Amino acid sequence: MEGLKLSEAELMIYIHPSKSRNVFQAICRELSSLLFQYNETFDGVLLAYDATVKSKQAKILAGLHPYFGVRVNTRLLLFDPKPKSFVEGKIVKISPESIHVIVLGFSAAVITDVDIREEFKYRVRDGEGSFVSRSHKRHALKLGTMLRLQVQSFDEEVMHIAGSLLPENTGCVKWLENKSEEALHTDRDHKRRKIA
Amino acid sequence: MGAKEVDNAELSDKALVVAIRKALTSAQSGDTDRYNELVQLMYIIKKPDDVDVVAQLQTLLKILSRSVACLDEVHHKVLLDRIFGTTIWDHKPNVNVMYALLDLIVSLATTSGKHLSSCLNMLVSNLLSQPRILDNKMLELLSRVHAALHKISFLVPLAPSILLPILAQSLPSVHDKDRFQLVVPYVENLLQLENSSIGKVFGNVILRVVMERLLDLDLEIGWDDILQDDSAIAMFDMELDLAVEGTTNEGEEFPVRSLNQNGNAVSDLLDDLMVLYFDHLKSCQDSGRLDEVFENLFESFVNLILNAQKTKISQFLMFYACSLDPENCGVKFASKLLDIFLNSNNNNQVTRTNAVAYLASYLARAKFLPASFVASMLKRLVDECADYCRTCNDDARPEEHQVFYSVCQAILYLLCFRMRSILDVPRFRSQITPLESVLSHKLDPLRVCLPSVVSEFLYQAKAGGLFIVSDAFIFDDLPESELSRALGGFFPFDPCLLKKTNRLISRDFIFWETVITAYDEDDEDEVLPEVIVYGDTDSDDDDDDDDVHDNEVDKMSITPKHSFMHETERLLKMPWLIRPSTCHRESL
C-alpha cells in the first residue's frame, strides 16, 4: 500500500520549565499532541513516532517563561496519500451510490457511484448489497472486503479520502493478488513451452 | 407487488433521481429554476397538513441523501443552510420527514469531509433544543438523533474528536440563566453518549465537563450568606427536637434544612443535575463499568474540586460513587487521598491539607466503610504525625507547621465520630497510642485546632479512657484564637443541603445526631434521645451530668470549667454546620 512513509527527523522541542523533572515524558507529550493530525512540516499525518534524546544539553529561550529546547532524533511514521496513489482499506458500508471504506482504522474513504467503473454492478443478495464484476464473477466487493482504491483527493482536516475504482488494478485485494499470481504462473508456462 | 410494478417503481425512482441531480448540476452552471423549486419544497415543511407535499418532501430528502456527491457548498448554499438549520422538534407530526432528514445528514457527513462539522453541529443543536417532556414519537426521534451520531462515528472514525468540542461548547454556561431549562435534558443526552460506544473515545472528558458545570453552579450559590446567618444554630436545636420527637430509625432520612426553600433557580438546577449524575453512576455500576469510570471521576475531582474550598455539594459525587461500591471504590478513594497527602514532592501545602480534610470528613461520614479500614487509615495518619513530631524543626511559629496542624485536626474530627468504634476494639485502640505523644508535643496542636472539635474530642477521650496520662490535657480556656481561626474548619462532607441529593445520600451518611459517642450509656436500643443530652432543653439531665462530671473533673480536668458549661454550650456542641472561618486560608 502506498501512502505510508517512514521519515527520520531531527527536531527541536521546546518544553516548559515546570516539566523539567521528567523531560522524556514532556517530549512524548508534545509529540503525542501531534498524532493523527496533518502536519505541514512533516508533510503527512503523524501515525507513530520513536524519539531518542540526542544530548542532555538544552538551549534556554530568553523570554517570559524560560522554555528550554531539547534536540530529539525521531523516526516518524507518516501517512500521506497523494492523488493517484493507491491505498487499501476495509469496506464498512455499501449502498448503490457509494462504498464507504476505512483506511488504517482512522481515515474514512468514500467512493461514489460515478467513480466505480462500469465493470461493477450493484447486486442485492440475502439482504446485503455488494458490487460484483460483470466479467469476473468471483470478483465481488462485499462488507468486510479489503479494497484497494486510488486516491483522488485527501481532506487533511478530517482525514477524508475521496477514492476511485476506475483504474483496472483497483478492487478486492485478495482477488487482485490471486490474479497477478496466476498471470505469473501462466507467464512461466508460456516461457517453458517456448523454450521447449 | 408484481415484477412489472417493481420495475415501474424502479424506473420512476431512477427518473426522479436523474431529474433532481440534473436540477442540482444545472444550478452550478447558472440555470437555477429547477433548483429554486427544490428549495421551495424545503420551506413547505411549515405546512404539515398537505399530505402530498409532505410525501414529496420525503422523497426529495431520500433522493438527496443518495446524491450528496452532487451537492456543492457554494452553489447549493441555500439548500444546505435550510437542511442544517432545521429543528426537528418543530415538525413533530411529520416524523417520517424528519427521519429522512436525519438520513440525509448522515450521508452528508460521511460522504464529504467538508460538511462533517456542520452536520455534527446540527445534530448537537437539536439535542440541546430538546423539549423537557417527550412523548413516544419524540423519544423515538431522539433515539434516531443518537443513532445518527453513532452511524457517523462508525463510518468516520475521527468524528468523535470533532464532536467533542462541539458538545462541550454547547453546554449552556452558568451565567446564561435564560437557558437553564435546557441544561438538564442536554446533560442527560451527554451522559447517554458517555455510556455508548462513542463514549469509549471521550467519555472521561464528558464526565469532567459535566462535573465542571456542577462546580460552577455550586460556586455560584452564595453559601456564605446562608451559613453566616446565626439562625442556623437555632435551627440546629429545632432539628434536634424534631429528631427526638419522631420515631426515627437507623435508615430514616434526617430532615435537612434545605436550600430550595427560597426556590433558588441555581440550587434547583444543581439539585437536578446531581441526581442525574447519580443515576448515571448507578447505571455504570449496574453495567459493571463503575471501576473505570471511577478513575476518571477521581482525576477530575482532584483537578477541579479538591482545591476549590467553597464547594458544598459537588464533592458528594465522589461520596455517592464510593457508596455504590464500598469495597473497591470506597477504599480506593480514601487510599488515593492519603497518597496525595503523603506525596510531599509533587503536591503543595494547600493540596495536601485539603486532601487530609477530605479524607477525615469522608472517613467520618461514610457509613459503608468498615471500622477496620477506618482504623487502619487513622493509624497511618497518627504515625505520620508522630514521625513529624520526631523530625520537625524547632520553629515555634504555627504557620510553619500548617500541614501538621491540619492533620491533627483531621484526626481529632475523625475520632469525634468514630471514637466508640475505635475504643471498642483493643487492636484498633493500640494502633493509635502514638496520638498521646503527638498531642502533648511542644507544637501543641490542641491549642491550634478548632476549639469545638478539640473540646468534643477531649470530652469523648476522657469518657472513653483513651489516654493514660490525662493531666497533660488541662484545658483552661477555649478561646477561638487567631491560630485556630486561620486554620479554619474545612469539613467537606458536612450534610448536604440540597433536598433531592440528600435523599439519595442519607442512607449511607452518618449524621452527627446518630453517632454513639464515647460518653453515652451502653443502652444500644435507646440511641437517639440519649445522645442529644448535650444540647437538650431538659435542664434536669444537664444538672445531673454536671454533678457526675464534677467529681471526676477534679482528677482529670479536661472538660472546661463549670462556669463555662452554660455560656459556652454552643461552642462545646459538635456543630452540625461548621462554618468555615471568616478569614479563609490565608497565610498568616
Walkthrough of the structure:
The complex is a heterodimer of chains A (196) and B (588). Chain A is elongated and about 70 Å long. Chain A is α+β, with helices and mostly antiparallel strands. The longest helix of chain A is centred in the last third of the chain and has 23 residues, at 173-195. In chain A, the strands form 3 sheets. In chain A, strands 5-6-7-12-11 form a 5-stranded mixed barrel. In chain A, strands 1-4-3-2 form a 4-stranded antiparallel sheet. A 3-stranded antiparallel sheet of chain A has the order 8-9-10, with no helix packed on it. Chain A has helices at 23-32, 173-195; strands at 4-15, 38-39, 44-60, 68-79, 86-94, 98-103, 107-112, 120-125, 128-133, 140-141, 146-155, 160-164, 171-172. Chain A is built from 2 helices and 13 strands; from the N terminus they run βαββββββββββββα. Chain A has 2 domains: 4-79, RNA polymerase Rpb7-like, N-terminal domain (Dna Ligase, domain 1, 2-Layer Sandwich); 85-186, Nucleic acid-binding proteins (OB fold (Dihydrolipoamide Acetyltransferase, E2P), Beta Barrel). Chain B has 588 residues and is an all-alpha fold. Chain B is 64% helix and 0% strand. The relative contact order of chain B is 0.07. Chain B has 29 helices and no strands. At the A-B interface, β6 and β7 of A face α8 of B.
Distance between the termini of chain A: 38 Å
Oligomer: heterodimer
Q: Which class best fits the helix and strand makeup of chain B? A: mainly alpha
The top-level CATH class of the largest domain in chain A is Mainly Beta
Biggest interface: chains and residue counts?
A: A-B, 23 and 17 residues
* Beta-strand percentage range of chain A: over 45%
SSE series of chain A: EHEEEEEEEEEEEEH
Average pLDDT confidence of chain A is: 89
Q: What number is the mean pLDDT of chain B? A: 76
Order of helices and strands of chain B: HHHHHHHHHHHHHHHHHHHHHHHHHHHHH
The number of helical segments of chain B is: 29
Judging by the overall fold, what is the CATH architecture of the largest domain in chain A?
A: Beta Barrel
Number of domains of chain A: 2
* Cα-based radius of gyration of chain A, to the nearest Å: 23 Å
Query: Which ranges of chain B are low-confidence, i.e. pLDDT below 50, for 5 or more consecutive residues?
Result: 1-6, 228-257, 523-568, 581-588
How many DSSP-defined strands of chain A? 13
Task: Report, as a whole number of angstroms, the end-to-end distance of chain B.
Answer: 89 Å
Q: What is the CATH topology classification name of the largest domain in chain A?
A: OB fold (Dihydrolipoamide Acetyltransferase, E2P)
Q: Name the CATH superfamily assignment of the largest domain in chain A.
A: Nucleic acid-binding proteins
Strand count, sense and barrel status of the largest sheet of chain A are: 5 strands, mixed, barrel
Keywords (chain A): DNA-directed RNA polymerase, Nucleus, Transcription
Main location (chain A): nucleus
Subcellular location (chain A): Nucleus, Nucleolus
Function (chain A): DNA-dependent RNA polymerase which catalyzes the transcription of DNA into RNA using the four ribonucleoside triphosphates as substrates.
